[in-house]
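Quick one, T. Sequence first:
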Amino acid sequence: MIIDFPGGARVDAHFGPFTVQTDQPAQAGGEGSAPTPFALFQASLGTCAGIYVLNFCRQRGLSSEGIRLVQRTIPDPATNMVAQVELEIQVPADFPEKYHEALVRTASQCTVKKHIEHPPAFSVKTVVKG
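Structure tokens:
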């Protein structure tokens, strides 16, 4: 993954054939042209859980129509960092009740969530490009 600075407060990540663009809101010196890196981090949690829910439905021949996930983050008042993430799986009234708890277990298997629960070690350094 290569991270570069295309101008302003934008920071982009390039990997494979993809580019993920980020920016800062105007009040933070950006143009608000893309999500902030932290918003993408939060979105990765919800979309990861979402793909698990979608695959669960597909594997059982269940319609995913009308299902949505609502994610809320609750900050720690002392640090303003995220203290808790709540994920609510909203299902239509006709979704079989026997699968409700299984959906919760399935969404809880999200790879992004597991990495947060068991964080990797980080190494940050500078290197002179040759």
